[in-house]
Specification:
CATH architecture: 3-Layer(aba) Sandwich
CATH topology: Rossmann fold
Radius of gyration: 22 Å
Number of domains: 1
Strand order of the largest sheet: 3-4-6-8-7-9-10-11-12-13-14
Strand content: 5-15%
CATH class: Alpha Beta
Structural class: alpha/beta
Number of strands: 14
Number of helices: 20
């Protein structure tokens, strides 16, 4: 199975369980007066919702491949009971689980869940950045109601992905006043945060207490925004679930060279039908993701949004000084590599050689395969370490070295009889573990009651962190992480504080990324 089909399974579990069936409302429709006008939402009796609220103008026509501009003002009351369109993306589980009416370039809207009667006028705010490999995703596939009932306001915003959100091109750079291009998807996220700062107090939110949280490429975005000079003051805390952080990113020059295949006339490029541009996005993707080289489509070091590689940024004082929660799942790689045509020892050795060159022998010592049956587990572990675990370790250590509060976790709760893979924790964070995709387990170690306990613990910790910057609360003592304490919280059958064992593999991989000095196994 190639990347086109692999995308259809990315985050399948998280998205499929994150949005329950909507409940009918008999309550009076709530109103919200935002900067763009008055919006009419709906309520289920405990939570107010406002869906499809525009935060930027539609990036179509001459606005394609330009930074977002604030949405224009409306007159009269505007409907906010229906979701806006998803941004352009290929059909997949991501779109099938979406509640949006369709996909379109006209997609820069956000959704809000707020307590019906806020106890005060300064509720903490949680802004969700969805994942989807920077190729897709949907703000409408998540329901913030359960979190909102715990006393926070939840916002989820759409952003451009694929070539719509991450095309760099010499002509785009030339026309830009900042002499850069690409990273439009990240600029959309920043625009949504700016909208929150300007408007959230109008429905009882505290613009000075904003927690940015995301999963997968959404968490990768959070990491990049922590290091961006354009986000100062836009959020005060961050939660990174399975971030693809500190991966190699293309330079502006390299990204421009890759983007030149789109064409050499901007007017003609902006006239390409959206469906044709989407098809070109998918044709540019490789069959298997490289573990060591920059991704073909995604964030770039553009010199403005992302001034430098994360590794270098985190090594300086340029990052936002915010407390963080960061962690991942026990078997992150399985979802991605299961369909790959790498099944034998010889195929695994070739793949490692292609990715690690002269260091392949060391990698094969750390991830040994003596028979074909060893390959699936080692391939999954290698993918998880290079794409997720190494970045989590690097961000945690860097932020802790700055004296900032860091809280690490590992989600090990058995799901359907298997170790949890990528995205498995998402419905637990959003409180929808009763969904069929979560509650139907084949393994004896998981039950509906333990599912609910873990979900309750995660929701409480996430909300408590949004309130105070510390996830500990009644019944949950979450130790602060440092490179010397190595403390983390395991979300298994019960939450439990533990100590990380020596991370030999990650130490070696970290040495390789730091380069160019020779590396040896610790």
């Amino acid at each position: 199975m190639n990347v086109r089909r692999n995308l259809a399974f990315s985050l399948m579990f998280g998205l499929a369980a994150a949005f329950p069936a909507a409940r009918a409302s008999a309550q009076p429709a709530p109103l919200a007066s935002f900067a763009q006008g008055t919006f009419v939402g709906k309520t289920d009796g405990s939570v107010r919702t406002f869906f499809g609220v525009p935060f930027a103008e539609a990036p179509i026509g001459q606005l394609r491949w330009r930074p977002p501009i604030p949405a224009s003002f409306g007159t009269g009351e505007r409907d906010a009971t229906r979701f806006g369109n998803d941004c352009m993306q290929p059909p997949s589980v991501l779109t099938r689980m979406s509640k949006a009416p369709g996909t379109s370039e006209d997609c820069l809207t956000l959704n809000i869940w707020a307590p019906l009667e806020p106890q005060n006028k300064r509720l903490p705010v949680m802004v969700w950045i969805y994942g989807g490999s920077f190729l897709g995703g949907s703000a409408s596939a998540f329901d913030g109601s359960a979190l909102a009932r715990q006393g926070v306001i939840v916002v989820a915003a759409n952003y451009r992905t694929g070539l719509f959100g991450f095309l760099a091109h010499p002509l785009l750079t030339q026309e830009s006043k900042d002499r850069t291009s690409g990273d439009y998807g990240l600029l959309d996220q920043i625009a949504a945060l700016q909208w929150v700062r300007q408007n959230i107090a109008r429905i009882g939110g505290d613009p000075k207490s904003v927690t940015l949280f995301g999963e997968s490429s959404g968490a990768s975005s959070v990491s990049l925004l922590i290091t961006s000079p354009l986000t100062k003051g836009l959020f005060s805390k961050a939660i990174l679930e399975s971030p693809g952080a500190m991966r190699p990113l293309p330079t502006l020059k390299d990204a421009e060279a890759a983007g030149s295949v789109i064409g050499s006339d901007l007017a003609a490029m902006r006239a390409i039908p959206a469906k044709d541009l989407l098809a070109l996005t998918m044709r540019l993707l490789p069959a298997e993701r490289s573990l060591t080289r920059p991704r073909v489509i995604g964030p770039i070091v553009d010199g403005r949004v992302v001034p430098t590689e994360e590794r270098l940024a985190y090594g300086s004082d340029a990052v936002d000084h915010v407390p963080i929660i960061i962690g991942g799942n026990a078997d992150e790689g399985r979802l991605f590599v299961a369909p790959w045509p790498i099944k034998t020892v010889a195929q695994f050795q070739t793949f490692v050689g292609d990715n690690f060159g002269a260091n392949a022998a060391q990698i094969l010592r750390l991830y040994p395969v003596s028979q074909d049956s060893d390959v699936p587990a080692r391939l999954s572990e290698l993918f998880a370490d290079t794409q997720f675990n190494l970045g989590s370790e690097g961000v945690a250590n860097a932020m802790a070295s700055l004296g900032l509060p860091v809280y690490r976790y590992r989600f090990t709760h058995t799901v359907r009889g298997l170790p949890p893979t990528h995205g498995a924790e998402v419905p637990f964070v959003f409180g929808f573990v009763s969904a069929p995709e979560v509650s139907t387990h084949s393994g004896p170690s998981s039950s509906a009651s333990s599912d609910q306990r873990i979900s309750d613990a995660m929701m409480s910790a996430w909300v408590q962190f949004a309130r105070s910057g510390d996830p500990s609360g009644p019944g949950l003592a979450w130790p602060r992480y440092s490179p010397t304490s190595n403390a983390y919280l395991e979300f298994g059958e019960e939450p439990k504080a533990k100590i990380l064992p020596p991370q030999t593999r990650l130490q070696y991989l970290n040495c390789l990324r730091a380069g160019p000095e020779p590396c040896s196994i610790p």
